[in-house]
Specification:
By secondary structure, this protein is α+β, with helices and mostly antiparallel strands.
């Protein structure tokens, strides 16, 4: 939300500069994210001052040039060459000093330099209005009628002081602050100033007869509706002050009528809409929910079908606008509009929220209506808007103003206990201070008894409905920084912490992965339907009831595509050597006993693509391989102290090939080369490797115990074997056979060479495998070693069909 510093000053008096004001607003809970200076005209007329022409003579070498001496309040007169035909002694003029940058109405900006023109020194420039961006005329220099001291900034003469746009990160609960008035109320609460509402006391009804009738059929969706008709308005360009305000807050100027609606919306927080009265069929405005399937062409030229629960503002022929969200194309104000009908209403936030979401429309009006506006504001806002229209567009007010409000919305009445306020704040403020803060927040005291208050909260504060909410209001105005810490802080703890904290484990693993060169990513849990389709589990897809778009309408069932999209994004920006990880969630729908259950799974995803390391004079770069991913998976498991695993080849179609580590019949991690068809689908033009961990199972298996064993006193022995095997035999099978045969002496098995080539049949390969043997109680002798190796060789020959090369 953007706020104009200058317009804010029209609502409340304060002396704070924009930076200090930003600090104050942030302290009250309206976090200021940015403050930016906005010049009334480009460049802000910097370096342009009031000057006085002391002398003026013809240039000896140029008939159309004059040599002038100009006083700008400095120690010496400036010598300036001027070609304007109207320059004369005694004039007050606009002087662009050396170094000033001018932004003309047309053409490029240029900077004034000290120069020689036909041999004469020129130390500045006397300016015409088009040369400084204030108009189109180039007939001559601007001659000023002013008593300002010489050297005064020209911006002061034209009253073109700069504005500052204050950008506030508005939280969803602070609907009351979605306007300049709302921000002014918070300033009032922390200062001694009061809010100055715009003057509408001169408003009165006219004599001309109103032609439009109004009916509100759905008073649940529209509790209050105000309407007013004005005849003979003139649609034209808005005045400069209004265009400057809208430009400051990032809103385009359309015309004086439309601009007034935007001004009221951002100034008072009350959205409104104006219809061309002559385009209202049957001269009747009806507020209702049209039948499902009713069509309306909105201002963006799109034909939209209403669903039966969309509130609309209609005429006798059909809808003219989607209430509180978007206007219709055919009923809006046009350049030829002469008679208008103003609509200012309070709409039920639930209806607006559902309608805006269904149609994918987010407007300034819906932003405010769906959070909740002030039901007491419409009568004031319509009078204020009418006054502005009469000032800027002329016209005559008719003799009737509608205000349909069958069931007034009451203030929230809340009981407060002083002891609860003290307990929640952590400090005793005293009843007098509490009541003073509440008064500044427009929260009125109804009754007061021993230790208890009953207060009335205005309905524009839609988030203040409970005792705790009122205490929060007191705290943010009193100031979080004014709550002192206790003199003595203490905490209870026990010696051991057996509880496994997933967040602690996540931080530990994140640090480890970062140390391995991985970068953490965070992606949306909402994905395109096509991202889920590759799993072939359409029945288990969780679909959003109100998706933001058709592209993002399902909850993801895997993290894979999120990471592939991140890889593509980086590769397209020439960052090709990538290692990512993400802690995320996946969502699966199941039918249990006829009821739909949605399961949320926590997952750790790891992606690798490109080269394992960048090019360097110390080493050649090499592409990431499956074994690099396998090593990373093994390091993660080692950090989580998980050792006993079963391993199978994965059948998951997301992988061209890969493995699954299984614990207790559950897949702990699946990993491998991402199927090329999926990388092609993601438009990824290099191979990628992916691992997906069941994070909940990983945390459950984690052991915080550190087990220490004495270093063996007796030496280990290594023996190597060369095994010729069928290509289908995996190393894991060799390892399992070895440990099944020898459980006591065998400590580790490792493959250190693999050969496939000319000397072997096409269906065979050769493994060179090392075995580490060790007895922790005595030194091994040759007889024990040979006997163990014979058992291993026999098992390999019998169980995996190995040929031992001796």
């Amino acid at each position: 939300m953007k706020i104009s510093y200058n317009q804010l000053k029209t609502l409340i008096d304060f002396d704070h500069n924009p930076q200090k004001l930003g600090e104050i607003l942030t302290d009250t809970g309206l976090e200021v994210e940015a403050i930016e200076k906005v010049d009334a005209v480009k460049g802000g007329l910097e370096g342009l001052v009031v000057g006085h022409v002391v002398s003026c003579e013809k240039h000896p070498d140029a008939d159309k040039l004059n040599l002038t001496k100009v006083d700008v309040g400095g120690e010496a007169l400036l010598e300036i060459v001027c070609g304007a035909p109207n320059v004369a002694v005694g004039q007050k003029v606009i002087v662009a000093l050396v170094g000033a940058t001018l932004y003309p109405t047309s053409g490029e900006a240029f900077t004034i330099k000290k120069s020689k023109i036909r041999g004469a020194i020129s130390e500045g420039m006397l300016c015409a209005e088009d040369e400084i961006g204030l108009g189109q005329s180039h007939a001559g220099i601007l001659v000023l009628d002013t008593d300002l001291p010489l050297g005064s900034p020209i911006a002061k003469y034209f009253n073109l002081e700069p504005d500052y746009v204050i950008e506030i990160g508005l939280t969803p609960n602070r609907a009351d602050a979605a306007s300049h008035l709302g921000v002014a109320r918070d300033i009032k609460a922390v200062s001694d100033s009061s809010v100055k509402m715009p003057e509408v006391s001169g408003f009165s009804m006219g004599n001309s007869a109103a032609t439009i009738d109004l009916v509100v059929e759905d008073v649940i969706a529209c509790p209050r509706f105000c309407g007013l008709e004005i005849h003979n308005v003139e649609v034209k360009e808005s005045p400069e002050w209004l265009k400057r305000f809208l430009n400051t807050i990032g809103v385009n100027s359309i015309n004086n009528i439309v601009d007034i609606t935007n001004y009221v919306c951002h100034y008072l927080g009350q959205p409104m809409h104006i219809f061309d009265a002559d385009a209202i069929a049957g001269q009747k405005v009806i507020v209702k929910c049209p039948e499902a399937g009713t069509e309306l062409i909105t201002l963006d030229g799109t034909t939209r079908k209403l669903n039966g629960t969309d509130l609309a503002i209609c005429n006798a022929d059909g809808p003219m606008a989607i209430a509180g969200v978007f206007g219709g194309l055919n009923s809006g104000v046009k350049a030829t509009t002469k008679n208008i009908f103003l609509e200012v209403a309070y709409f039920n936030p639930v209806f607006i929220r559902k309608t805006a979401s269904k149609h994918g429309l987010k407007t300034d009006a819906s932003f405010r209506y769906e959070r909740g506006t002030d039901p007491n504001m419409p009568p004031f806002a319509i009078k204020f808007a009418t006054k502005l229209i009469l000032d800027l567009a002329g016209g005559q007010v008719t003799d009737k103003m509608f205000d349909i409000y069958p069931t007034p919305i009451s203030n929230f009445e809340i009981d407060l206990k002083i002891k609860n306020i003290d307990r929640l704040l952590g400090k005793k403020l005293g009843e007098e201070l509490i009541l003073n803060i509440l008064e500044k927040l427009d929260i009125q005291l109804i009754t007061k008894s021993e230790g208890q208050l009953k207060v009335s909260v205005p309905p524009y504060r839609v988030d203040v409905t409970r005792e705790a909410d009122v205490v929060e209001e007191i705290l943010r105005i009193y100031g979080f920084e004014n709550i002192e810490l206790s003199d003595s802080l203490s905490s209870d703890f026990i010696a051991e912490f057996p509880e496994k904290d997933p967040e602690t484990l996540k931080n530990k693993l994140s640090d480890a992965l970062a140390a391995m060169g991985f970068n953490e990513i965070q992606s949306l849990s909402i994905v395109k339907p096509s991202d889920n389709s590759w799993l072939n589990q359409a029945d288990s897809v969780v679909k959003l009831l109100n998706p933001l778009s058709e592209e993002l309408s399902e909850m993801r069932q895997s993290l894979l595509f999120s990471g592939l999209n991140a890889l593509v994004y980086n590769i397209n920006r020439r960052n090709k050597d990538l290692k990512f990880f993400e802690f995320g969630r996946t969502y699966i729908k199941n039918i249990v006993d006829g009821q739909t259950k949605i399961k949320e799974n926590r997952v750790l995803g790891v992606w690798m693509s490109g080269n394992i390391s960048s090019e360097s004079w110390m080493q050649n770069s090499s592409a990431v391989s499956y074994h690099n991913l396998f090593q990373t998976v093994s390091q993660i498991l080692a950090l989580m102290k998980i050792k006993k695993l079963d391993t199978n080849e994965t059948s998951n179609q997301a992988f061209a090939y890969g493995l699954e580590h299984i614990v207790r019949n559950k897949v702990l991690v699946k990993f491998g080369l991402v199927n090329p068809s999926l990388t092609a689908k993601a438009d990824l033009k290099q191979v990628a490797y992916y691992a997906e961990f069941d994070w909940d199972l990983l945390c459950k298996l984690y052991s915080s115990e550190n087990k220490f064993v004495e270093i063996p006193k007796y030496p280990e022995v290594r023996r190597d074997l060369s095994l010729v095997l069928n290509k289908s035999v995996k190393f894991d099978q060799i390892k399992k056979v070895a440990f099944n045969v020898e459980k006591k002496l065998l400590k580790s098995v490792n493959v250190f060479d693999v050969y496939q080539g000319e000397k072997l049949p096409d269906d065979q390969k050769s493994y060179s495998v090392s075995f580490i043997l060790q007895d922790e109680e005595k030194t091994l002798n040759d007889q024990q070693i040979d006997k163990t190796m014979q058992k291993l060789m026999g098992a390999f020959e019998n169980e995996v069909g190995a040929i031992i090369r001796k």
